[in-house]
Amino acid sequence: MIMKYLYLFMLLAFTISCTDLEPVLYSDLTTANAYETESDLNAALVGVYSSLGPGAGDAYLYRAGYFVAITDYACDMSYSPRADIGHMSTSTYDPNNRYFGRTWKYIYKLIADANMLLSKIDDVDMDETNKNQIKGQARFLRALAYLDLTDGWGPVPLLTEPINPTETFDMPLSSVSDVDAQMIEDCEFAIDNLPEQWSPELGLARATKGAAATILAKVYLRAKNYDNAKTYIDMVLQLRDDGVYTLNPDFKNVFSGYNKIDMGMIFGILHESSLNGGEITNHFGASDFPEVPGRWGYYAVNLDFWRSFDDADPRKQFFDYNYEGARPRDETTTHGFYYMMPAPGQTTPPNDTTKLMQKITTKKYSYEMIEQSYLDSRTNYVFRLADVILLKAEVENALTGPAAALPYLNEIRARAGAPLYGDVGFPIPATKEEMDDRILDERGWELVFEFIRRPDLIRFGKWVEKTNDYLSGAGFSSVVTESMIHFPYPLIEEQANSEMAAENSSRYAH
Questions:
Q1: Per-domain residue ranges of the chain
Q2: pLDDT score at 412
Q3: Is the pTM of this model over 0.90?
Q4: What is the Cβ-side half-sphere exposure of residue 257, based on CA atoms within 13 angstroms?
Q5: Measuring CA to CA, how many Å separate 175 from each of 169, 172, 420, 503?
Q6: Are the beta carbons of 285 and 326 closer than 8 angstroms?
Q7: Rounded mean pLDDT of the chain?
Q8: Residue 193: closest CA among 261, 120, 118
Q9: CA-CA-CA-CA torsion for 184, 185, 187, 191, nearest 10 degrees?
Q10: How many angstroms from the chain centroid is the CA of residue 226?
Q11: Residue closest to 448 by CA, chosen among 309, 262, 326
C-alpha cells in the first residue's frame, strides 16, 4: 500500500513538472512539536485509545479480539485446532507462539503512547481541569495495559516514561507488587480527576471513575486484599445506585448490534464499520452459518464447557449449533451440511449430510447484526456491570461468607432466567469453598469469551486443576503445572533479555 501511494505521488510530480523537482514541505511533525496545544493533546489521546484495538488492516489485534488467546485459551473454556491457537487450546505453546509476541507488542505500544503523552502534557498551557482529565485517561489506559501484562506474564518491565528502544535490552523485570503499586497510583489519580459520565459530545467510550475503580477492584482481588477490593467494588455499585449503570433486563440485548452503548457498560471499545470497523465477528462468528455468512469460527468454546451450562439456563442457547450450513455440500445440491451438537461420546454422524461439531461459537459477537460487512460496528466490552456484581459476590464470600454472597450471585442468574440457588435442585452453597465454586462457574457462564476466564481461574486457585481436567477429558495430555501459571515471555523478548530467558526455561513444557 505504501509503494502504491509513493508511485502515484511520483507520477503526479513528473506530470506537473519535469524541471521543478523542489519538494513542498507542508508539515514536519516530530515528538518535539506535535504536543504544543490542547488540540494536539486530545488528538494524541485518541491515538492512545486506538491502541486498544489497532486498525489499518489489523482491526482484530489486542482487545479487538486477538487478546482472547491470552485470556480464554490455555484453560478449560476454549478449543481451536489450528496452528498457534491450537497450541494455546492444548497448553502446548512455546515462546515463539505468535499470540505472545503480537499481544506483547501492542500492549507495550499502548504504554509507549500513553507515556509519550504524559511526558509532554505539562509543557502545554491549558485549563488545569482539562489537563488532568487527559492525564487521568492516559493513566487509566496505561493501568489497563499493565493489568493485562501482569495477568499474563507476571513480572514485566515497568515503563512510566518514554525510552529509547536501544535502551530496552536486558531491562529488569519489575515484580507484580511493584507494577500493582503503579496501577494503583494511576487509577487513584483517574478516580480523582475523571467524571462519572462524559457529555455525549465528548465521546461515549472514555475512561471514567467507574472504569478506574473496576481496575482497582481487580488489582486488589488478585492480591487477596479483600477490604480494599470491596471499597472499589462498592464505589462502582454506588454508581449503579445513582443511575450511572443499570443491568440490562435481557442478557441477550447486551450484545445486540442495535445496542451500541449498553446500560451496563463500564468501559468498552466502540467501532463504526465505515470509520474504524472491527473484525471481531469474523473471528468469533460461526463458520458456514446462514444468518451471519462468511465468518470463520476461529475462536470457539469447547463442547465440555458448553455442556457445563444447565439445560434450564437460557444462556446455553446463546450459541450457534444444530444448523444447516449456508454453502452447498457439493455442485449437485443447493443444501448445506447439517452441523449437529453430538451427544457425549458420540463420534459418528447419523448420515453423510451431517457433520458433528467439535467446538461451538458464542452469539455474543454476531447477535442481531446491523451490517454484513467485513469490518463491522460491534462493541467490545472491557468492563461491564455483571462482572462487578459477581466480583461483589466473590469479595462478600471471602469477608463474610455464603449468605452475604448469595444475593449477588442470584441477581445475575435471575437476569439470565436461570434457576436460582435455593430453588429445587439448586441447593444454596453451605461453605465458602462451595460458594467460590459456584461464583467461578457463574463467571464462566455469564462472561464467556469476555477476556477474563484464565485470570479468574488463577485467582480462584483452580487453573491447574480445571485445565488438566478438560485436557484429559478431551483426550489430550494433562500437561499443565503450577510453573505455567504465567506465560513464557515472547521469543523475541527472551532473546534480548537474559532475565526473561532464565524465567522461560521453567515456564513452559519443552
A1: 279-378
A2: 98
A3: yes
A4: 19
A5: 18, 10, 41, 13
A6: no
A7: 91
A8: 118
A9: 120
A10: 24
A11: 309
